[in-house]
Amino acid sequence: MIRAALCASLALLFAAPAHADTLIDNVNGITLDKDGKLVRFTGLVIDKDGKVAKLLDRKDKRPERPDFKEDAKGKTLIPGLIDAHGHVMGLGFSLMTLDLSETKSLDEALAAIRRYAADNPELPWIIGRGWNQEAWGLGRFPNAADLDAAVPDRPVWLERVDGHAGWANSAAMRAARVTAASKAPEGGRIEMANGQPSGVFVDAATNLIAAAVPKPLARDRDRAFLLAQQKLLEQGITTIADMGTTIDDWQSYRRAGDKHQLAIRIISYGHDVDNMALIGGPGPTPWLYDDKLRMVGVKLYLDGALGSRGAWLKAPYADAPGQKGLPLLTPAQLRNKMVRASMDGFQVAIHAIGDAANAEALDAITDLNADLPGERRWRIEHAQIVDPIDIPRFKQLGVVASMQPIHQPSDRLMAEARLGPERLKGAYAWRSMETAGVRLAFGSDVPVESANPFPGIAAAISRTDAQGQPFGGWHPEETVSRETALDGFTRSAAFAGFAEDRIGTLMPGMRADFLILDADPLLASPSEIRGMAPRETWIGGYRYYKRKGS
Amino acid sequence: MIRAALCASLALLFAAPAHADTLIDNVNGITLDKDGKLVRFTGLVIDKDGKVAKLLDRKDKRPERPDFKEDAKGKTLIPGLIDAHGHVMGLGFSLMTLDLSETKSLDEALAAIRRYAADNPELPWIIGRGWNQEAWGLGRFPNAADLDAAVPDRPVWLERVDGHAGWANSAAMRAARVTAASKAPEGGRIEMANGQPSGVFVDAATNLIAAAVPKPLARDRDRAFLLAQQKLLEQGITTIADMGTTIDDWQSYRRAGDKHQLAIRIISYGHDVDNMALIGGPGPTPWLYDDKLRMVGVKLYLDGALGSRGAWLKAPYADAPGQKGLPLLTPAQLRNKMVRASMDGFQVAIHAIGDAANAEALDAITDLNADLPGERRWRIEHAQIVDPIDIPRFKQLGVVASMQPIHQPSDRLMAEARLGPERLKGAYAWRSMETAGVRLAFGSDVPVESANPFPGIAAAISRTDAQGQPFGGWHPEETVSRETALDGFTRSAAFAGFAEDRIGTLMPGMRADFLILDADPLLASPSEIRGMAPRETWIGGYRYYKRKGS
């Protein structure tokens, strides 16, 4: 089904030749060293293994006869950016399905859906994602009747932008045998209207429809992966932490590796302990394919998202007084999974968005830390709404805060509505985390947001959106420095994945993963940074991407 | 559970050094060429990639300064033997569980079970395999009461030698909640006694108990694999076709490969189409780890085994007049699975033991052959009892007969009882297959039999058992020549797995997989052959095994 929907052609990825002893000269070179100190250089020498051999100063002698030399003509060179939290296959499939994330109103979305259905008559289901009733200013969830007006004859199933809710038409509900009598599973909710399912399904209830969608074939998966990889290369992501790898996902990554088609690096976290154990077996895998792939840990989901009110809060939602959201795991379930992973040396990354979820994750880590010696590098993913009294506990417990700066401008108005003003003090609180001594790893949560890291860097340093709004930044006391933003997308993102011994900086001995940029992100304005895109993306001393015309 | 049962220590596999330009000199060298013609040589030169560079005659000049030279002092050198049909993880787990295959009576077996339970008090379940009421001369199946007398307090579950039946004690049936009311699933049978389950479960019904056995952990699986590999190396098997790989099995093989612990070569057939698609994805995998691992196809089960009367016969069993055995797939199911595999380029291997199953497999291949161009190399596994009128169809349809010579002496008396004299004409009918022009690939069906290929070669050329019985051979008109036996375990076994371009002979360019033997199997007596064991086992130019004292 998805196969037929694929129109984009795969770019030929691997045209860039391998080089022994490469010199990239005449650069405005920037990296952090292993302690986070800024280092500047004007030339980069890469050895035959694709590792950094030497950083050169203006006055340093250049190698006399490198096998390959590139004159960067003063362009800026920075370490390859690491996305500490993304969903690789989610990105790939989003590139193969209808994208509603740019629609500005329900009507615009319905028009796009109608057009897509007409353009793809062979598809048995219309699958899409990215809708956001908040961005549409709709003031309510959309419903099946809205969709039926656009596509009455075929099932339509559209994931919300945050992945925590789905929107079905009547044909999809019929195909999935969902009726007024259907019960939401635990951890899920069926939106109702006049005693009937309205068409919107929240969190665990999305499975009621999703289970009826025809499964993609392995060839669809492999194509989705290559599309995702190409997109990441174009956006300057050289490594991504894949947050919730299934065995099917893993097999696609391995097939790419086996066929020498793996360009980016993937730090994989198994989708719950079953996938972790099936993929890793008795412990984390070694680094595979020249440090391109490793399963290092497990991703656990403790709550949902703010937009769908699935995030688990200490006090009720400001805009839905009876509701506090839902924990997706009992205390015992959470701890059992954490112990099972940790005993076998797997790292644990816990999705926690609401302040109650964050507190519970910290409580669980407290319970386990005493009995589990060794450096665990517990990760809390998102750490979006944190009670300020809990922030110091991240530091005390050695927890990495894995946060996505771009969520802040995207969520701003919604967060204000959901939380009210008081709770915003611990919302997207990067600077508070940093001040408390917490390690900050930055990512995108792609495909919830674009994987493009530059708007994320711009958000991190300015707390403004694509229009530069609000002027002066939203709660600007929580901005971070440019160096911290760079650190979050490079050195600390590597640390968060136990990879700081090979990537994240350009110090000698590290893998030569880097970008060539038109401007210096330490000098450019936030709006200039937002518009940046790499001229070239190099991984392990190979140039995998070169922008057209550059 | 199985972990605790493991007593054997893992030999250090990888002590043998790599050599560039190796000379094995002064050998009585034997190989077939690509057309099956016998070639003799006295020296073997291996290049730095572990491939055969040259075969030397007595008069040929030797390389002047090889990096490594071994003087074999006139010992015999033959190609590494290929087991065309085995179960690698089954062998591994059999090495970690109670082995009853050498017991000569029910009493002896019960004594062994009692002793094993006493020696392993920490095991929650006693797991074993290898029993055979025929070998015991019991005249009936054993039952739960027999077992309860040996182990009353803990569940006991023992697989029959052919893997097609299991024997439980009362505690195991209680743990699995099996009662008089339990129904056998389709394709299975619960043996009953006085209106109660007797304790023996046949074919699909074995799952009723097996599902309650605690699952082995990944670390148990990995250890089982390394034990199996070591055993195969000691027995002179350099490549094995793994007939029914699950995703768990595959992950163990990959972990071994990733850690540079994969010594033997594995040609993998997925356990039904689900595992095939999950492992291979859109098609067969490439050869991985320097030709050590490849998933090439799928294993389908069309019937059971003769011992448990699960083999599907055209006419009723001679010793159970009402029964004809069971097809495990409907005609539509079989063809659907074959099409699904073949359309994606996977090879299909169909388990067929009874003459009805063989005829149905041939019918299905006939139905598909016309619509599927290209060389499919359909395989029928076992092809044990074939109606003589069906034998020419193997040749017509291009079907490889994948047979296990050692089954013949093991099954002889039982086959006579099950089939009566008339049907023995197409039983284990190697020479008839060969005469009809059918490609014969030989294997062991380990762990149903020992993986040791030498008793298999002896059986193939003599149709006698370990005691040399019956004198002159059982239906000796079906013996094959020594050259054909060698071909079945080398060149044709490689062909059967689409691997003849890299293994199976020692012609220049092929992987240097070979054995050093004490005697020449083309000259030795059947009883000498039966007792052979390699002095050394080399794979890809590495010596992975050297017998103590040799």
TrEMBL record, chains A, B:
CDD domains: YtcJ_like (cd01300). Keywords: Signal. SUPFAM superfamilies: Composite domain of metallo-dependent hydrolases, Metallo-dependent hydrolases. GO terms for molecular function: hydrolase activity, acting on carbon-nitrogen (but not peptide) bonds. The keyword Nuclease does not apply. Residues 1-20 form the signal peptide. Residues 71-541 form the Amidohydrolase domain. InterPro entries: Amidohydro_3, Metal-dep_hydrolase_composite, Metal_Hydrolase, YtcJ-like. This is Amidohydrolase 3 domain-containing protein.
